[in-house]
Amino acid sequence: MGRTKKVGSTGRFGTRYGATIRKRIKKIESVSKIKHQCPSCNLNKVNRVSIGIWECSFCGFRFTGGSWSPETPGGKIALRTAKRLASEPET
What we know:
- The chain is an alpha+beta fold.
- It has helices at residues 19-33, 73-87, and strands at 36-37, 44-50, 53-56, 62-64.
- It is built from 2 helices and 4 strands, in the order H-E-E-E-E-H.
- It is elongated.
- The N and C termini lie far apart (66 Å).
């Protein structure tokens, strides 16, 4: 099983399941395994604890996010909208 230079972590599947599905799995696994930036201390120390739960190994800040990444596209839109609504003066 040593031939995983191209296929990375999906080499364990061999030729099963099709190339497209293996590429999707490779992308998901690579995003979920890397260190992400902590929203509290801004260091790249955030690891995935379980599905949707993320924790900073430096400051211990634990928060929820997406299943495979701590910040989802929908979450970014919601954050922008909340900031915009908070800064607008009420009439």
